Amino acid sequence: MTTITVGPISFETGFPSIAQLEGDHAEPATLLASLDQKQREVVRELLDSTGAVHFRGFGIRTIDLFETAAHSLLGELAPYRGGDAPRRAERGFVYNAAGPDKSKLLRAHNELSYAPWHPKALCFACGRPADEGGATTIIDGHRVYTSLPRAVRDAFRTLGVAYIQHLPHAAGDPSGIKSWPETFETDDADEVMRICQESYTSAKWTPLGLLTRNVTPGTLEVGSDNRIAWFNQAHIWRKDPSVMPHVSDMGVWETRFGYGATYGDGTEITTEDIDLVSKTLIDCTVEVTWDAGDLLLVDNRAAMHGRTPFSGERQVFVAFA
Ligand SMILES: [Fe+2]
Q: Per the domain annotation, does 135 fall within a domain?
């Protein structure tokens, strides 16, 4: 563990790395919006080498302060286009990070790893912590990769993952699945098909909705040292064969909504493989607990994120870049 102090901020390496103020400051939030070149360099290097930086006690409690800080730290913010999670835009490209059901663990994932595009970095901040629970979980993707048996990690690395989704035309399906207009943040069907044909492996309209298949890498080379990191959410999208056999047969999907995952060549991901992945992810999980005003940067390629169950009115903002 190394500590670097630049002006009023000290940085300690770790997972996550910790940034804290030295001494008292009347308006700590303004410090994040006006980092000098040396401080920016340290943040960038820590994010690159460790995958996550937790800023403690910087007073980022409101959407205004969060939007300014996220923009200052990450540059241009991006929409959540193509995402599967029910998510409300608070303003512009600032979203809430509540998750669908606060009583359940939100399993860790790389944001939009199933889509043809994904954000490089995520910025979270806490307006109000939960009464109980509600930690953001983070997982070092390189640690996951090196912890898995060689046969499993090689299969994901060489074959990649195929993600299948069948999205309804209209919101409100009892299964809770988002419609394609919600997913793509537009109801322009031509525009959505143009995006899909340009970017997805395959896409078609069905009588029920939009059916897409997308093959992406299961691992990525990340950081300036090109370490290999786990990068997928097959453990969340994959269907157990006892629940849904023939998951790689696209015809089977035409009559049902939902999400599925196979290896990139269409072969089934076995229950044994997915159980090993799920166990390894649990073993590698680190919980980041929130105080109001904290901010967390996550390198979306190098680290996964999730959320523990909680009670109360937790308010956590998220932005993508
Ligand atoms: Fe997420």
A: no
